Amino acid sequence: MLKVNSIYKTFNKGTVNEKRALNGVDLELNEGDFVTIIGGNGAGKSTLLNSICGVFRVDSGSILIDGEDVSKLPEHKRAKYLGRVFQDPMMGTAADMWIEENMSLAYRRGKPRGLKWAITNKERAMYREMLAQLGLGLEDRLSSKVGLLSGGQRQALTLLMAVMQKPKLLLLDEHTAALDPKTAETVLNLSDKFISEGNLTTLMITHNMKDAITHGNKLIMMHEGRIIYSVSGEEKAALTVDDLLKKFADISGEEFANDRALLN
Questions:
Q1: Residue 243 belongs to a domain
Q2: Could you give the CA distance from residue 218 to residue 237 in angstroms, rounded to a whole number?
Q3: I need a surface site. Which of 37, 252, 258, 264 has the fewest CB within 10 A?
Q4: Inside any domain, residue 134
């Protein structure tokens, strides 16, 4: 479903601020794979996701989604393949629009647009049923503005909207980092539910090593723009946070540098 072939990305080329963010990354995900990504500060995790989305054009290499080379496609043309949830709960939804209006935009994504726009009663019933899965009471607040929701409610709604059309690839970019622990757990459990039920191919960046081990069927570790460690199956399930820290030090020759990860 995703094939990343030897991609490179350098920012500020030829200046004193030159930074190679991706250094020959190779990655392959089969349909239904759920891969967690960890790494120190500046490891290239978000640059990898942004390159897949088309936010950044890679310098060389190729990115294929479901067999189609999207390397040269602009961001808006890749959007039909992707669902994405950002770290900031304020992104991914329109604050001044109602919940049902936001869901309607997600439902119509990638579909032909005509003059007909009104939300039908059938759609509303469908939205209520979807929102009820969140367990947050939002099914009774379809006409509430999204800007009035809490961060956790908004992130759960964004997640629901991201999976509504069953994307080829779901990208979760530290999507629980800005939430309190209890709310983060709720959103992670919802993520697991939607990914499992939809058999969604997923990449999740997380700063929480325990979450990286617990969730998904494969884990990759990045450092200095490269994937330095990959583990899956029973070997992944048997890992501990101490194992990951030791593995990072052994391979990179450095101490793991990510304050949020270490605090967790």
A1: yes
A2: 9
A3: 264
A4: no
Q: What is the DSSP letter of 145?
A: B
- φ, ψ dihedrals at 8, nearest 5°: -125, 145
> Is 162 part of any domain?
no
pLDDT of residue 116: 58
Instruction: Specify the number of domains making up the chain.
Output: 1
- Residue 246 makes CB contacts below 8 A (sequence gap 6+) with none
- d(C-alpha 204, C-alpha 224), whole Å: 18
What does 86-124 look like in DSSP terms, one character per residue? -SSTTSSS-TTSBHHHHHHHHHTTTSPP-S--PPPHHHH
**Residue partners of 10: CB distance under 8 A and separation at least 6:** 18, 19, 20, 21, 59
Residue 224: left if φ>0, alpha if ψ -120 to 50, beta else—which one? Answer: left
pLDDT at position 172, please?
Answer: 97
Q: What CATH number is associated with residue 239?
A: 3.40.50.300
* Structural domain for 211, as ranges: 2-95+167-263
Cα 16 from Cα 261, distance rounded (Å): 29
Share of the chain above pLDDT 70, in %: 94
DSSP 152-163: HHHHHHHHHHHH
Give the span between the Cα atoms of 66 and 83, in whole angstroms.
14
Does 125 fall in a domain? no
State the Cα–Cα distance between residues 178 and 184, nearest whole angstrom: 8
User: If 0-12 CB within 10 Å is exposed, 13-18 middle and 19+ buried, where does residue 67 land?
Assistant: exposed
